[in-house]
């Protein structure tokens, strides 16, 4: 029995997510009990700077009272309703109008014009896949159904979204991908995979050629859609190499393949613009978003679809009658009210502009760590960054996976009061968008101390 009884209660009842379950039997979970701005507190009163905004998501930090008030007011008015059977409610309409008014530009002449609400990013991506299939059935091309994601791309945890995700651990033992309709193309991690002398632009060309080769090998008439996160999040906060999306989109257009932008992390100011699609000139057919849509104060996500896809849904329904899908909690009024208030706060407080203004200090503070012997590369945009840990920077040699250097850094950072996330040996940072320059300095200072301690420990063990 762990001395802290709440930890014991947690262990006795909860299966934790993305966790080494057997390992945590020893330590139990750290239970958070409160928050203040960019900080959270555990039950022992220890304070942590949330360098990940929770799950890349709590954009307004952990104590935004205006969102609590919005939730309470909506609960008093209409605590629940749905959007089935031609019914609906104003909280959803108000949010949809606001969201669509700020949507990224779709393909020329084909704006993102409608929204389907969900409760998670995974569900949005599932629906996007279903709609791609549904639309191609309508268009009389039932063989055009394959969906291409990228290795190390992350799109969620449901059966379809996890199939689309390109992470072996999410497939192994879960019998995924669910079918051979799910394919994965190479991922644009220039720093690690570029050949000697290969520029970012040349590397991007190679990535686009890989995609084209895959489409041709499968047969373009069988490929329906391509999914990408503008900045790959779970894969390690990987910004695309220069010209990547321009070249990828040219291939997709050539073979009539839909582009679905997974903006679940990048949406709402994270990359220094409202959308990652703005930052990288992506013109998507569908966009999934969640997380910062409600600053994560309520579980809500949204799939925005182009007018062309919406027209196809109308045509299908004229033939078949019912549009046969829907979730009980989709467009939940309390979540909609909180999300709408979040979007208002983004405007009132100029949150996206603030994030863009703090970005140089944030990226500069992390780039300042390039003098550290453990750091091979630092890359980011807006308020998202990845720090690559390397055994030998000059020769680009990684640590052995068994050394679990990334996990060690993540744990040591936590002991130092800083929450970051390891993706292999890349350490990801996505603080709340409200972070100030002095908090950025504090974050970088805590991280440098963490790196120093890790280096000492690795040296003592003969691993560095
Ligand atoms: N897409 C991306 C890019 C994500 O990062 C995530 C979650 N981290 C998801 C989809 C899935 O979202 P959710 O966990 O809300 O299902």
TrEMBL record:
GO terms for biological process: biotin biosynthetic process; gamma-aminobutyric acid metabolic process. The keyword Cell inner membrane does not apply. Keywords: Aminotransferase, Pyridoxal phosphate, Pyruvate, Transferase. It holds the Pfam family Aminotran_3. Belongs to the class-III pyridoxal-phosphate-dependent aminotransferase family. SUPFAM superfamilies: PLP-dependent transferases (SSF53383). Its cofactor is pyridoxal 5'-phosphate. This is 4-aminobutyrate---pyruvate transaminase. Signal peptide: none annotated. One of its GO terms (molecular function) is pyridoxal phosphate binding. CDD domains: OAT_like. InterPro entries: Aminotrans_3, Aminotrans_3_PPA_site, PyrdxlP-dep_Trfase, PyrdxlP-dep_Trfase_major, PyrdxlP-dep_Trfase_small.
